[in-house]
């Protein structure tokens, strides 16, 4: 392992501490009495306190120094005085341990008394300190000069890959995750007050049912069978309704082997809830109350800023049929139309379709491209065609449609809900229709779950169910643009092995990071290296696999590699 100069120095300090008889990683309990937030909120001059956290800054002024300590609640100022810490003749603990062997990022414990500085800063007068954990890597702390911040830890890939560092050096990041937990607690309290039961269902499933999505596949060695990471927990929760529960809900990790972007991660959290003897009209009313409560608990108002807009979660929300929405925004009336007629309507609107797509998928594409973005305020898109909703009860008064809704906010889906299909014969036929789509090449079509059909044959009462994406709800409620910012550890591409670049390679690489793809002659001219320096630089980057040089229409292009 190749160490940087800073890492070598820190390891030397580690050895020096041990040589002095100081354990840099003690096992003892440290008796913390207060957090930084508690001290500031309930400040009392002269109070004796014990705190612990990371040393984040130090300003040495001879035999006295100021420092800042960061714990889980924030920061507080420390005042180190040599004679307070070392009242006797031996000043080693201040002169050597504090001034020479402590580094930014080290965990220390502090015992002292509260006082207020001349400028009004609430501070701890340190009487003693203890080493709790030595940090062997330096934190990427930002620097400030003349009011300008330099070297801030802002690179998204590094932030998501090293969230543990991101949380330390960008403390405001933590606020989103605190709010995420509050959102989930509010939902849990809401359903618990309705006397619904929180449950757990299998993640490893023999049939990946409950949604139209491509699953992850694994293998169980002892049983010698393939298993799938669940794409939804719907079918198991409905089995519990069959079993006699009137209301169940689950916060579930689901997995879909599909693309990744700013709003999709292959592993995500969903809350699904099922209520016996209810329908989708009741579910819309209940969902309005739930989201209004979430907004109020989080912000104290039903109005929440999102992407430069004010979203109002106060009930009631607009309700419009999906085919009515398509007619309103494209002029095409697709009610009762054949597959060929719908395909022609899609082509007329410039929506890409192919022969593997059935009626449901084509309507979904058309609505997604031409209508979805119009619905900024919370809107229930209702009454989906049967072909789009294989698990949904047919509409009681509109032939060919189902009692289903999707809740859109800011042009994106937040929730999906039905009056659940409980006719086992109808359900079997719908599954068989999905099988036909699979045979046509639709790799997201549903499997036939024979055990679920058997459960329905024992009888399921009229039921309504809903799924709400917790990651997306957190994005909406915290004005966050990327799903990676509401996940502690989002899925990332494999980390590249660190490569030390020469000065010539760095010069070329920095330009390519901005341009991504550029003519070789233009790049060479822009970087301004000598012919020899250019040759060494571009060859080195190619060897490292960081760039690719290729001929496009007789022009040499240089492309940055992901």
Automatic annotation (TrEMBL):
Known EC number: 6.1.1.6
Q: Where in the cell is it found?
A: Cytoplasm
A Pfam family annotated for this chain is tRNA-synt_2
Q: Which residues bind Mg(2+) 1?
A: 406, 413
Q: How is the cofactor bound?
A: Binds 3 Mg(2+) ions per subunit.
The UniProt family comment states: Belongs to the class-II aminoacyl-tRNA synthetase family.
Q: Aminoacyl-transfer RNA synthetases class-II family profile domain spans which residues?
A: 180-494
Name of this chain's protein: Lysine--tRNA ligase
One example of a Gene Ontology biological process annotation: lysyl-tRNA aminoacylation
UniProt KW keywords: Aminoacyl-tRNA synthetase, ATP-binding, Cytoplasm, Ligase, Magnesium, Metal-binding, Nucleotide-binding, Protein biosynthesis
Q: A single Gene Ontology molecular function, please?
A: ATP binding
Please report the organism this UniProt entry assigns to the protein.
Answer: Spongiivirga citrea
């Amino acid at each position: 392992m190749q160490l940087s100069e800073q890492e070598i120095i820190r390891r030397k300090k580690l050895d020096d501490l041990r040589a002095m008889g100081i354990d840099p990683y003690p096992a003892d309990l440290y008796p913390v009495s207060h957090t930084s937030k508690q001290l500031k909120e309930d400040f009392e001059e002269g109070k004796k306190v014990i705190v612990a956290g990371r040393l984040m800054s130090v300003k040495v002024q001879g035999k006295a120094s100021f420092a800042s300590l960061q714990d889980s609640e924030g920061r507080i100022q420390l005042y180190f005085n040599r004679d307070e810490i070392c009242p006797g003749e031996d000043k080693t603990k201040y002169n050597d341990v504090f001034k020479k062997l402590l580094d930014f990022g080290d965990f220390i414990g502090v015992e002292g008394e509260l006082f207020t500085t001349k400028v009004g800063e609430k501070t701890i007068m340190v009487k003693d300190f203890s080493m709790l954990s030595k940090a062997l890597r330096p934190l990427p702390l930002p620097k400030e000069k003349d009011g300008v911040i330099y070297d801030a830890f802002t690179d998204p890939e590094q932030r998501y890959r090293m969230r543990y560092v991101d949380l330390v050096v960008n403390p405001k990041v933590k606020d989103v995750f605190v709010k995420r937990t509050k959102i989930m607690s509010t939902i849990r309290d809401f359903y618990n007050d309705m006397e619904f039961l929180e449950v757990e269902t299998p993640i490893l499933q023999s049939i990946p049912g409950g949604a139209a999505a491509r699953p992850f596949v694994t293998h169980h060695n002892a049983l010698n069978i393939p298993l799938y990471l669940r794409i939804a927990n719907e079918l198991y929760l409905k089995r519990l309704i069959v079993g006699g529960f009137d209301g169940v809900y689950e916060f579930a990790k689901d997995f879909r082997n599909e693309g990744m972007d700013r709003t999709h991660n292959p592993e995500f959290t969903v809350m699904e809830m099922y209520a016996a003897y209810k329908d989708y009209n009741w579910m819309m009313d209940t969902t309005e109350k739930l989201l209004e409560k979430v907004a109020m608990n989080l912000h104290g108002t039903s109005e929440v800023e999102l992407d430069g807009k004010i979203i109002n979660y106060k009930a009631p929300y607009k309700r419009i049929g999906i085919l009515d929405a398509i007619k309103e925004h494209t002029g095409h009336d697709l009610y009762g139309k054949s597959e060929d007629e719908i395909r022609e309507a899609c082509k007329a609107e410039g929506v890409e379709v192919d022969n593997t797509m059935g009626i449901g998928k084509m309507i979904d594409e058309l609505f997604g491209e031409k209508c979805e973005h119009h619905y900024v305020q919370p809107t229930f898109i209702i009454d989906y065609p049967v072909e789009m909703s294989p698990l949904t009860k047919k509409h009681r008064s509109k032939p060919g449609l189902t009692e289903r809704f999707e809740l859109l906010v800011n042009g994106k889906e937040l929730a999906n809900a039905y009056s659940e299909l409980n006719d086992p014969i109808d359900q079997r036929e719908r599954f068989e229709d999905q099988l036909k789509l699979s045979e046509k090449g639709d790799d997201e079509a549903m499997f036939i779950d024979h055990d679920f059909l058997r459960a329905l044959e024992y009888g399921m009462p009229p039921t309504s169910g809903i799924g709400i994406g917790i990651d997306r709800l957190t994005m909406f409620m915290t004005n966050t643009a990327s799903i990676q910012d509401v996940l502690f550890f989002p899925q990332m591409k494999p980390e590249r092995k660190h490569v030390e670049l020469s000065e010539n390679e760095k010069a070329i690489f920095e330009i390519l990071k901005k341009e991504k793809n550029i003519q070789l002659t233009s790049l060479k001219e822009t970087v301004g290296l000598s012919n020899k320096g250019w040759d060494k630089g571009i060859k080195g980057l190619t060897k490292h696999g960081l760039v690719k040089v290729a001929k496009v229409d007789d022009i040499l292009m240089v492309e940055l590699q992901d």
